[in-house]
Amino acid sequence: MPARLALCLIVPIFAGCALLQEHGAKVAGGVGAAITASELELFEAEFIGGALIAYAIYDPLAPTWTISVTRLDEERVRFDLRMKSLVTGGDGEARQIFVRNAREIAESKGFAGYDVMRFEEGIDSTRPFAQRVASGEVRYRRSRTFPGI
Q1: pTM for the whole thing?
Q2: What's the Cα-to-Cα distance from 55 to each of 28, 50, 61, rounded to whole Å?
Q3: Containing structural domain, residue 78
Q4: Inside any domain, residue 49
């Protein structure tokens, strides 16, 4: 009963704040979800524990791709990308992330450009979940017109 009373007192406060903020719908939705969860008795220890375990496994704030960069020689670099196991999108991002990282290295190291020597995408069938993987090799170029750059 005290939890319901507290929620009933909090709702008008959030509703007042919702009128003053642009994020009013999000606040009102969060309060509505909290009230519904309370009425359905989802604040039991079993449900909270399950939600924490699911959050730890899924971890929505973790980066979708991990990238390892290996320098092969003065001009060549290999990128190995691995997507996290549980995702809700990002299937076509590998090439975009590969090119973005290649461009960042070219700009930071003073190269005029780069050539993609090879790029492969695939799926690594690990257990319990398969993971998308990508691998590519880049050759960086210095400027021929302005060799000092």
Answers
A1: 0.58
A2: 23, 9, 10
A3: 65-141
A4: no
Token pair of 118 as six digits:
């090879």
Assigned token pair, 94: 């590998």
Q: Is 50 part of a structural domain of the chain?
A: no
pLDDT, tens digit, 9 for 90 and up, residues 58-113: 666 666 788 999 999 989 999 999 988 776 666 788 899 999 999 999 999 889 89
The HSE-up count of residue 16 (CA atoms within 13 Å, CB side) is: 5
